[in-house]
Amino acid sequence: MAEPQGRIVVGFDGSDEAAGALHATLRLAERLSSTVDVVTTWRWPITWSSPPIGSSWSPLHDAEEIRAQANALISSPPSPPSAATTRTVEGGAAEALVDAARGAELLVVGTRGRGGFRGLLLGSVSTACMQHAPCPVLIHRAQDPSDRESRTIVVGVDGSHDSGEALRFAVTLARRLGYAIRTVTTWQWPSALNRKAPPFDHWSPEADARATASSALDAAADLFDDDVQITSEMVEGPAAAVLLEASQDAAFLVLGNRGLGGFKGLLVGSVSQECAQHAACSVIIHRS
Question: What is the dihedral of CA 270, 272, 141, 143, to 10 degrees?
């Protein structure tokens, strides 16, 4: 294995979703020459004022058993050889993972953990990590990107600073993986306007989208070279719906945490939230 270039943190709670996320992380880390930091968390139930007297059970014991499961997955096929370590950390899952992700290049979580309700598309821990992590967060979908035929990373570009930083991250990732980049910029006529007789002679939302895509590519031009194939397209329609459709043929969908229309108080914008919930591929929310 090449000299490690970074550290990827992955949360593991013994669920099927976590096992899939761990396998995907090991494969990704092998491609990126990164180390893997597998974190399992534990804490006493918050309704208990103190541990029960005379009981041999403890949540740490359960966590260590889950950690043993992670070690077994790491050491058995089809897991690739990797520089992976496992550890148990006391505390709430989201808080512990966010803390563990400091200085990491990526935090990987499954869509739902052991405590998730079946009706939920995205668990509370995954959502909290997506909102608060100090590094990009990969929301792993059940299908491993390495099992998909696609070798394309789709990036949503809307002219915001966050989407520009997400594009730069995606280009760097694509170069390391040998993938292509496809940027998608959406446009719509404002619903209040009559598009058949618009009140403007020289303006259209499509022209704005074209200028936005061009500016984003120009801002990331210093990262472009012959190692990365980049295509750009403008698509009419609601941003989330268009990006979800694009995710059908993607290895990853990369988005900024907030878009151009996001309120400053929002940690993650509505489009990023919806894509993280419903995308067909794994989603990376780039934290700026």
Answer: 120
